[in-house]
Automatic annotation (TrEMBL), chain A:
Keywords: Cell membrane, Membrane, Transmembrane, Transmembrane helix, Transport. This is Sugar ABC transporter permease. Pfam families: BPD_transp_1 (PF00528). The keyword Magnesium does not apply. InterPro entries: MetI-like (IPR000515), MetI-like_sf (IPR035906). PANTHER family: BLR7065 PROTEIN, SPERMIDINE_PUTRESCINE TRANSPORT SYSTEM PERMEASE PROTEIN. The chain crosses the membrane at residues 12-36, 72-94, 106-125, 259-284. It is found in: Cell membrane. It is a multi-pass membrane protein. PROSITE patterns: ABC_TM1. Residues 68-280 form the ABC transmembrane type-1 domain. Coiled coil: none annotated.
TrEMBL record, chain B:
The chain crosses the membrane at residues 75-101, 113-132, 144-167, 188-213, 250-273. This is Carbohydrate ABC transporter permease. Gene3D superfamilies: MetI-like. It is found in: Cell membrane. Belongs to the binding-protein-dependent transport system permease family. PROSITE patterns: ABC_TM1. CDD domains: TM_PBP2.
């Protein structure tokens, strides 16, 4: 009993620095968010309680609904693309002849390099006048594309860059899952004369399911809350066609100084986060992954 | 019959190889364009007829522009300072917290472990508005302190989570033996567990450093003064002015900023790839 108590004391002492930082800089701001969104607080002055006024304003604003649509569209499209391409790349890198750490390292690059600096490269490639993509198109005898200037193509570009940045993470994460599948299962299937496709459906996919789910959910959380891609490529334009929760919250809350409104917009990311976290915890606590 | 399968095998290999080349081009293309453009003269950059995929007269003028006409070196220094300080704070706190959560028995260990994971999933974009208020009321707005105080919030949950997984898999016997000898928990942690966990600690240190090095939204939200900026906001706000893009210096700045990360990454590739496979998720 005494030892138990002493161990508890030691544990809390060890946890103190981490807990102090997390409580004061994550838990407290979260609670503040819940309060701020019902006020008209501005960056330079405290606000007063205004009930659901911020939400009413958002509900009636076309820009907000465009933002909801974009956030969901970008997340859905990018995550599906990342998943499919990432799985393809993982299977490719799983080939014995490509079992080389440098190939893996190069594939990981877009994810390792802080995204801000990679996105700058895309901004340059996509430039309508001097960018290399339009140069290639004209040399192939095709017409130029307004990559970031028309609503359709700007959305396309945001999804493209999101995919570029996320594929490495899916690929290497899933490769880890593939490596973990015991070889004996495949050998047994081969004895039974299973075709490669059959092996993929019957063995690879079911066994990859837990890591696949965790990686996908994680990616959903990260994609729906992303700021840097839209901010650097389009600043939410043209005419809010690529505005997402994070950029709109930034525009209202910091550029416009309306902290209360910004907090209200940010909070719409919360449900996605909670649902993903709950499912992930379920998978992890089952102990099926990693 | 055998000839046919040999042929098929060859064809498969060729197909796989060409697919790999396509993947590598997709991955590397933006970096290739950045490298080339950073060495181009302004004249060549803005000549529509010049080939964007090649450089005819390499020059260092863009790099000189960075060093002489902007505060780039200062931003570099700021980024390095913030990354070094926050990574140290976070590694220290995370090693202690992860050890307590994975090895010590106390009330609330399990919910706390879960809590760490949930906090790890909370994105910066959800917190930057209230944090702007916090930073303002602490009086550290527009100083590097605002970043030093806030960056550990996304470094610690991640590091703690990863280290917890690693500590759990260490053999207990060595620790038990040390306990019998009457060593304190702290001594066991720094003398026994820490040296055994070096690979995990290195991986986590790298990730923390990278997360801090490229962080954008907090830096953008809390800092406006050019001399206090870090690389991520300095390059994106001072080399892009409205519709004016300083393409050459912008590419050079982005590249130079990526170099330390690429260097450490290439030196420690094994740590990285295994760390990621072990569930090290950004």
């Amino acid at each position: 009993m005494k030892i138990r108590q002493r161990e508890g004391l030691v544990a809390y002492t060890f946890l103190l620095p981490a807990l102090a930082i997390v409580l004061s800089m994550v838990a407290l701001p979260l609670v503040m968010s819940l309060y701020l969104c019902f006020t008209d607080t501005r960056i330079d002055r405290p606000g007063k309680f205004i009930g659901i006024e911020n939400f009413r304003f958002l509900w009636q604003s076309d820009v907000f609904w465009t933002t909801v649509y974009n956030s969901i569209l970008f997340t859905f499209a990018s995550v599906v693309l990342k998943l499919l391409i990432g799985l393809g790349v993982a299977l490719l890198l799983f080939q014995p002849q490509f079992k080389n750490k440098w190939i893996r390292a190069i594939v990981l690059l877009p994810w390792v390099i802080p995204s801000v600096f990679g996105i700058l490269g895309w901004l340059w490639i996509l430039d309508p006048l001097y960018g290399s993509l339009n140069w290639i198109l004209t040399h192939l005898g095709l017409s130029k594309i307004p990559w970031l200037a028309s609503p359709f193509w700007a959305r396309f570009s945001v999804i493209l860059v999101n995919t570029w940045r996320g594929v490495p993470f899916f690929a290497i994460g899933l490769l880890g899952g593939l490596v973990g599948i015991p070889k004996e299962i495949y050998e047994a299937a081969e004895v039974d004369g299973a075709s490669p496709l059959k092996k993929f459906w019957a063995i690879t996919l079911p066994l990859l399911k837990p890591p696949l789910l965790v990686i996908t959910l994680f990616s959903i959380v990260m994609t729906i809350s992303d700021f840097s891609i839209v901010y650097i490529l389009t600043r939410g334009g043209p005419v809010n066609a690529t505005q997402v929760f994070a950029t709109l919250a930034y525009q209202y809350g910091l550029s416009g100084g309306k902290l209360g409104m910004g907090a209200a917009i940010s909070l719409f990311m919360f449900p996605f986060l909670l649902v993903s976290a709950a499912i992930m915890l379920g998978i992890i606590s089952k102990g099926e992954t990693y | 019959m055998r000839k046919q399968s040999r042929k098929k095998y060859k064809l498969n290999r060729m197909l796989a190889l060409s697919l790999l080349v396509v993947v590598l081009i997709f991955v590397l293309y933006p970096f290739y364009c950045m490298i080339l453009s950073s060495f181009k003269t302004t004249r060549e950059l803005y000549n529509i007829r010049s080939n964007p995929l090649w450089v005819s007269k390499p020059t260092l003028e863009n790099y000189l522009h960075l060093f002489t006409k902007t505060n780039y070196l200062k931003w570099y220094f700021n980024s390095a300072l913030v990354a070094a300080v926050t990574t140290s704070i976070s590694i220290f706190s995370s090693v202690l917290a992860a050890y307590a959560l994975s090895r010590l028995r106390f009330r609330g260990a399990k919910p706390m472990g879960t809590g760490i994971f949930v906090v790890y999933l909370i994105p910066q974009t959800l917190l930057f508005i209230p944090l702007a208020k916090v930073v303002n009321s602490l009086g550290v707005a527009n100083s590097l302190w605002s970043l030093i105080l806030t960056y550990p919030t996304f470094q610690i949950p991640f590091s703690t989570w990863l280290l917890m997984g690693y500590f759990r898999n260490l053999p207990r016997e060595i620790e038990d033996a040390a306990m019998v000898d009457g060593a304190s928990r702290l001594r066991i942690l720094w003398g026994v567990v820490f040296p055994m966990s070096l690979p995990a600690v290195v991986t986590v240190t790298l990730f923390c450093f990278t997360l801090s090095w490229g962080e954008l939204i907090y830096a953008l939200a809390f800092i406006s003064d050019s001399l206090k900026q870090t690389l991520s906001i300095g390059t994106t706000t001072e080399l892009i002015r409205g519709d004016m893009f300083f393409w050459g210096p912008l590419m050079a700045g982005g590249l130079l900023a990526a170099i330390p990360v690429v260097l450490t990454f290439s030196l420690l590739v094994d740590y990285y790839v295994s760390g990621l496979a072990a569930g090290g998720i950004k």
